[in-house]
Amino acid sequence: MNNHLLSDIAVDTWVQGGPIALNDLIGSVVLVEVFQVNCPGCFIYSLPKAVGLYERYQQQGLVVIGLATAFEDYDKNTLENLQKLVTTGEVIGETFKALNQRGLLSQRKLTWKIPFAVGMDRVVAETEPVTDERVLRYAREFLAEFDKLGDERKKSALQQVRHYLEQKSMKAETFERFALQGTPSCILFDRKGQLKDVSFGQVDYKQAMVEHFLAEK
User: Fold this and answer.
1) Total structural domains in the chain?
2) Residues 199 and 46 sit within 8 Å (Cβ to Cβ)
């Protein structure tokens, strides 16, 4: 794991509970819940889990921050839709379809509120050209076992990475800086503001990790 610090989280706009100077949170355990507005799994599984952890441990020194990002569906994963979500509970796109099918909405809206601070990742236009060097660098960063793959699988992986980069019009700074694999993802920092864990899609073990780092003084 790289040596990122809490201050490496890039928030472009705070839509709730901010602005927060991240370095002021040193002394607390900080859990950054990274989601996309158009991500059903974020709203069915990980955000409710993060709300539960916040309610249970905030008095013991846990700070939870929701960070909306965008690595796809740039027309849906927008600041405007995030603001609508936070102020009205209204969800859109695939999130709406999935939650509606499960009967988890009331009048097209969430039945619960996000109680902690929420910001938008810094998303900027992608200007870097797609070179062989960049494709290889990206493959190595996101596929830990890339160099151990056989030639055919390497070739296939590089083709997939090139295709992804060629259609990628935007760059989300926190998402890329922490080499996140998708959403939902969770980034956990200890009381010193040092990175301790990055996870993708897993929610079950978060509570044990939060308790562990809260216990450290």
Assistant:
1) 2
2) no
